[in-house]
Amino acid sequence: MSTNDPKNSSGENKKDKQLQAFRVNNKGKKLTTNQGLRISEDEHSLKAGVRGPTLMEDFHFREKMTHFDHERIPERIVHARGYAAHGEFEVYESMKEFTKAGFLQDPSVKTPVFVRFSTVAGSRGSGDTVRDVRGFATKFYTEEGNYDLVGNNIPVFFIQDAIKFPDLVHAFKPEQHNEIPQASTAHDTFWDFVANNTESAHTVMWAMSDRAIPRSYRMMEGFGVHTFRFVNEQGQARFVKFHWKPKLGVHSLVWDEAQRLAGKNPDFHRQDLYEAIEKGDYPEWELGVQMIEEEDEFKFNFDVLDPTKVWPEELVPVKIIGKMTLNRNPDNYFSETEQVAFHPGHVVPGIDFSNDPLLQGRLFSYTDTQLSRLGGPNFHELPINRPVCPFHNNQRDGMHRMTINQGPVAYHKNSLETNDPAPATEEEGGYAHYQEKVEGRKVQQRSDSFKDHFSQAKLFWNSMSEVEKQHIIKAFRFEVGKVKSKSVQQQVVNLFSHVDADLAEQIAAGVGVKVPTSAQPSQETASSPALSQENTIKAPATRKVAILAEDGFNFEEVSGLKDALKKAGITSEIVSETLNPISSSGGQELEVDQTLLTSDSVLYDAVYVAGGKDSVNSLKAVKEATTFVNEAFAHFKAIGTAGEGTELLAAAGVDSSAAGVEILESRNSESFIQAVAQHRHWARQV
Ligand code: HDE
Predict the structure, then answer these.
(1) CB 526 less than 6 A from any atom of ligand 1
(2) Range of the structural domain that residue 663 is part of
(3) Active site members
(4) Which residues partner with 641 through β-bridges?
(5) Which of 170, 273, 292, 325 is deepest in the core (most CB within 10 A)?
(6) What's the rounded Cα separation, in Å, for the pair 612 and 586?
(7) For residue 144, with 0-12 CB atoms within 10 Å meaning exposed, 13-18 middle and 19 or more buried, which class applies?
(8) Which one-letter DSSP state was computed for residue 4?
């Protein structure tokens, strides 16, 4: 039994309780300086005469301004734009057979978590819906210390060795000379990197797929990417990969919509997460693990240490072991979301590393970067970063030290404090690194087993539905089409001609270069159905529908629909020309939530046009209303209407017989709800 009892079945969220000690509420309080002195004047600085100069003596002015002058810290070098939430994790059944990790033993224990989602390339103020990998970093506040699972929403990475990370990031960030473009890989340096670093081919396929434009953080998978190790009480180890599977399924935007959203609402993803949690629609993910026995290390046609490879789920099944629920928004963005510091090296007994060279390099980078970002070595004492178990060691002093360590001794070994704090034995919960046998010459080389860069890029391509393939081709044509160098465009096509002939031809045709005659595409014929989003969960819950209505709408129809949507877990908003309440043909009033100017079809999953002659006639006269419906149709969204509403559809150029366009008979909203649940109606595309 460890000294830190892993059981926390009292039901209280220890992290929440710990944070409570740091929360400050100004309600009903008098204004003071940081020294606690009450302030009598906060509008006028101290001056020599009403029109005279400000006096240095005004300590309140000086303190207020000095603090303001230093209120910014460096943004993260990557993953600068992010958003986070608190929650809990519970394991379904004891994982004792595989790992001794305390938080994976007892289903009655709820482990507090803090999860930060992010984009990678953009700076802190950039848009949410850009084409990019998303970060998915989870801090588990376990009783044995913090465990960080610092993952992404794409299961593979662009490079195989950490030494190349600065090069990769320099290539995808805005270009050196003019800091353009922001939060986008559609430029020369990124594609020059890709073309000349073939190991990136597989991950680039993912980045050009719909995975890189998620509908919501709540609808993304998460992956630990690297291979880690589970180690049990007996010291037996297995290779493990981690997966987060969203209960709402994996869904994406379409590219045109994503670009419009970046202007209409750059906070689209953070607002979606914030509002879902405020409403009580707590997002959930199941934690899954893929495990490979140590003796099977060389049994596969990929190297288990290679971070550019997936372990196809059909070969190595994902065992679902627990569930995470995000149920509380942070109190303060800066204190929590900005100051949280993740590190893939924050592990607990029972979880260990593999020799993946990308992971090994990350183990250095994360503490190092916090030193400049958070200003010194004591960032672990910030409330959001503190473990919920006590911590004791001989590390002292440094910028912003907050603990007061008692006694004269800060060294080991000592006799004055009988060697305290003393290392714990493994039985007492002391972390012991897995004793993997390693022998070798010091070399700067890549293993031959890492050199197949195309088979899994082809596997991914083979696994896509026709629609997903079309999206990938378009994404390549967009991104590579923005590249100015013809030579780089040609090199990109040369590279992807090693993946698939049709893909290479389609990119080449789009960007006006030729496919090399010597191209030899990968011969991989396998596919992995788990990789296609077409096979995901489809459900109506937490979707958002706009109901377009004006004076003269049909009250029974709209109120019946609203009730039915609510029952299905769908939020609806009335969108009208102004914010004045609207009255139905029978004289009943209804509050309006948004106007045709403050909202837009890209902010909703589906649109419904209310019936009622006068209402439809008014809507037909407003350009924003027809655009609303037309765009929803172009973005493959469900569209519903009844009665005269079909006239607005016709005015918007919408084919009423197309997939996902539901003309409701006798007020039965079920078919519309089912159409919303489908997420998008790709039959319109093919
Ligand atoms: Fe990171 N990464 N990374 N990364 N990463 C950072 O740490 C780094 C990699 C990931 O919400 C930085 O605190 C190197 C893979 C996430 O706060 C930095 C390498 C994966 C976040 C860093 C990688 C990730 C980061 C920047 C290659 C998925 C945001 C600020 C060896 C498994 C965490 C910071 C948050 C952040 C380094 C590759 C995920 C510079 C050197 C692979 C989710 O330390």
Answers:
(1) no
(2) 538-684
(3) 79, 152
(4) 609, 663
(5) 273
(6) 10
(7) buried
(8) S
Question: Are the C-beta atoms of 111 and 103 separated by less than 8 Å?
Answer: yes
Tell me the H-state helices in 338-398. 357-373
The total number of structural domains in the chain stands at: 3
Domain assignment present for residue 423? The answer is no
In short, whether 203's Cβ falls inside 6 Å of ligand 1 is: no
Could you tell me if 356 and 491 lie in one domain?
A: no
Residue with CA nearest ligand 1 atom 8 = 362
Token pair of 124, please? Answer: 């802190």
**C-alpha–C-alpha distance, residues 576 and 580, integer Å:** 9
Q: Looking at the structure, do residues 561 and 499 belong to the same domain, yes or no?
A: no
Give the list of residues 6+ apart from residue 546 with CB closer than 8 angstroms, or none.
Answer: 572, 573, 575, 594, 599, 601, 603, 604, 606, 607, 608, 628
Question: Mind listing the pLDDT tens digit for each residue in 113-132?
Answer: 999 999 999 999 999 999 99
270 Cβ contact list (under 8 Å, min separation 6)? 83, 128
With cut-offs at 50, 70 and 90, classify the pLDDT of residue 5: very low
User: What is the residue whose two structure tokens read 């607002």?
Assistant: 271
Task: Report residue 668's pLDDT band, with 50, 70 and 90 as the boundaries.
Answer: confident
pLDDT at 10: 59
Same domain, 466 and 546: no
User: What are the tens digits of pLDDT across the range 601-644?
Assistant: 999 999 999 999 999 999 999 999 999 999 999 999 999 999 99
Instruction: Residue 104: name the closest of 236, 297, 248, 233 by CA.
Output: 233
Q: How far apart are CA 436 and CA 305, in angstroms?
A: 14
Q: Which residue has the tokens 């026995």?
A: 293
User: Residues 340, 483: one domain?
Assistant: no
Report which DSSP code applies to 32. B
